[in-house]
Amino acid sequence: MTASYGAFCTDFYINLKLGLKLELSRGRDTVLSMFERLRRQYPGMTEFRKYKDELALESPTRDTPHRWVSVRTNSVRSGIVNPGAMIDAYRLHETVLEVSPYFLSISPLDVEFVEVLYGFDLAAGGNHDEIVADALLGGSPLAKLLDGRDGRTIDCQPVVGLSLSDGTEAYFEVKTRRGEGGRERSEEPISVYLTLRRAGPVDDIKQLRETLRTLTAHGEELVETRLLPVVLNPIRNSIMPGL
């Protein structure tokens, strides 16, 4: 699977989320020590940020690829935007799964789930919900609910989930944006997501890297065989220039 998705979307990203049952310690020394360890491996990650419920280490937003790692109350997250190759994203996520249990005292019983998200942003003007409805519902029985004779479509964000044979959960989701009162927001994209999730706990914290490999193997196959042809390409084809 190639990470060259310039012909398909505006931005492409792969995110990791390690969900935990207990609250993490976000003490100064603990988190900073972990971030220093990550910065030694990824020298471009130089920006330390403190948000309301999050501490984050990021590369400058102008960088391509853009990398980030964050610690929240019940999760550790990481992401890479527009990676040059899939392995670039996977290496960052593997490193996070390797170092975060050590610095943050995460035990196998504490693991609630491991989640990988493949995200595609499509720049689009006009009514995002109408674009999605025309692309994905056109000609279906559901399309009759959105007959324009009585108004305009203001919400069409389908989510479909399935359970794979090994217990992995996979969710396909479309996210549209609107301003206050349903006004159109042409400066923001339509997003298409594929999320893969495996529930915890795990027997050994070292299993997290193998879990990541399982999720990414499913993800690459589902992106190629389902998300691109069934969801992303129809929406992209429905986005008309100048809307």
Q: How far from one another are the termini?
A: 31 Å
What is the helix/strand order?
Answer: EHEEEEHEHEEEH
The helix tally amounts to 4
Main beta-sheet annotation: 9 strands, antiparallel
The strands making up the biggest β-sheet line up spatially as 2-3-4-5-1-6-9-8-7
Descriptive overview:
Helix 1 runs antiparallel to helix 2, helix 2 packs across helix 4 and helix 3 crosses helix 4. With 243 residues, the chain is of the alpha+beta class. The chain has a 9-stranded antiparallel sheet. The relative contact order is 0.17. The protein has a domain of 158 residues. A hairpin with a 7-residue loop joins strand 3 and strand 4. The chain is built from 4 helices and 9 strands, in the order E-H-E-E-E-E-H-E-H-E-E-E-H. The model has no long low-confidence stretch (mean pLDDT 90).
Give a quick set of tags describing it.
globular; 9-stranded antiparallel β-sheet; alpha+beta; 4 helices; about 30% helix; 9 strands; about 240 residues
